Amino acid sequence: MALPYKQSTQSKKGQVEEMFDNISPKYDALNHILSVNIDKIWRKRTIKKLRSHSPKIILDIATGTGDFAVAASKIDDVKITGIDISEGMLNVARKKIAKKNLSEQIDFLKADSEDLPFNSETYDAAIVGFGVRNFENLNKGLSEILRVIKPGGVFYILEFSKPVSTPFKQIYMFYFMHILPFIGGLVSKDNRAYSYLPESVNEFPDGERFLSILANVGFEGNKCFKQTFGIASIYEAYKPEK
User: What is the DSSP string of 182-202?
Assistant: First the structure.
């Protein structure tokens, strides 16, 4: 299992919380620099798909600094709840939505994606951006998300994946394994955080394997849309109608 701090005695969940608390002040700037702002395009594409379902109540899991929630706020008459285990990231998110005058549309709270504090069948849709690979128990987290979505509701996951085409795969993996951790560690002052990123991506069961996991949990109509030579993928899944 990929862990942020391999010498730590904390659970993966505890280590992930500590890591994001540590890097939260620099997270947004680094994220956009290291991705050359392509992450913004991926979010817009995901929200475009989500908008076609006209959801009114959305849950944003592992919201981090709230970028996905902000993108989702462009949907008409929508209310969004963002959750995360890192209070440091949530503090950045709250300041962000205050500046954008989105506090009436979006609210944030500290919560565990594997033990959601919401009633079953509450949300029209759920989204998670670059967060499922950090779940300590992937099946448990996905099962909780399935529980809180209404029957017929949609779930979109935006997550890193592994490109397969030569020579792009080799060029990208060199950047991802060597250059990104060096720059990330230098700026964030947390050397492990940006080494953990490629480790967690390499370990994550992307593509068809993730679609199979979604199906086994109980989602249906599962699809994968690869982005930018396979660097990332948008997954679409539905909670079955009763």
Answer: HHHHHHHS-TTHHHHHHHHHH
